[in-house]
Amino acid sequence: MALNDSTTNRGCSWPGNDPVMQAYHDTEWGVPVHDDRKHYEFLVLDAAQAGLSWRTVLHKRDGYRKAFADFDFRKVADFTEADVERLLQDTNIIRNRQKIQSAITNARAMIRTIEIHGSFDAFIWQFTGHKTQVNHWEHNHQIPATSPASDGMSKALKKLGFSFCGSTICYAYMQAAGMINDHVTACSRHSQLGRILP
């Protein structure tokens, strides 16, 4: 959906005046994801955000895409310690050893999850009953950092071998992947997404 309305993110204040953040808000945030490769991308990026701002991560997204084989988790699953050392020298990503190793660990866990559940998508959407949870927040400060669903997701992911998947990261992931519509009601995307939900 092409969006040229300058008031699109009037209600959601977090994109600020950053054009990259605004574009992400207007075209991606809250749009339901059903592609396993895209799910993996958001898992990597949300884990990278831990302790940092989403703006920092989003501006390094292209660097992450190149560093992690265009988010092909089957290729990343074969990364070795030599790849970790190489990535620690890559200034286009966040050079944190634990986060880099987590991306590899989670790629392997993605494969295990698919072997068990058929697809990661089928597994992950169970936490919102296989449909988008539409919230009706009037103000940004009302949006929580966690929920019972993100608590349950975090526990389940850890059992499958995922790392950097605490409840806060899981909640942010659910927002990104469209499992939750957390656009505030004054934001035009709240109703736009409501019209395209499955």
Structure description:
By secondary structure, the protein is mostly helical. It has a single domain, classed as Hypothetical protein, domain 2 (Endonuclease III, domain 1, Orthogonal Bundle), CATH 1.10.340. 52% of the residues lie in helices and 2% in strands. The chain is built from eleven helices and two strands. The chain has a two-stranded parallel sheet. Helix 9 crosses helix 10. The two termini are 16 Å apart.
Which outline best applies?
globular
**What is the CATH superfamily?**
Hypothetical protein, domain 2
Q: What integer is the average pLDDT?
A: 92
Determine the structural class based on helices, strands and strand pairing.
Answer: mainly alpha
Terminal CA distance reads: 16 Å
Rg over alpha carbons: 17 Å
Strand content: under 5%
What sequence of helices (H) and strands (E) makes up the elements? HHHHHHHHEHHEH
Domain count: 1
Tell me the strand order in the biggest sheet: 1-2
Helix content: 40-55%
Can you tell me the CATH topology? Endonuclease III, domain 1
- Which spans of ≥5 residues are poorly predicted at pLDDT below 50? 1-9
CATH architecture: Orthogonal Bundle
Main sheet makeup: 2 strands, parallel
Total beta strand runs: 2
CATH class: Mainly Alpha
Our count of helices gives 11
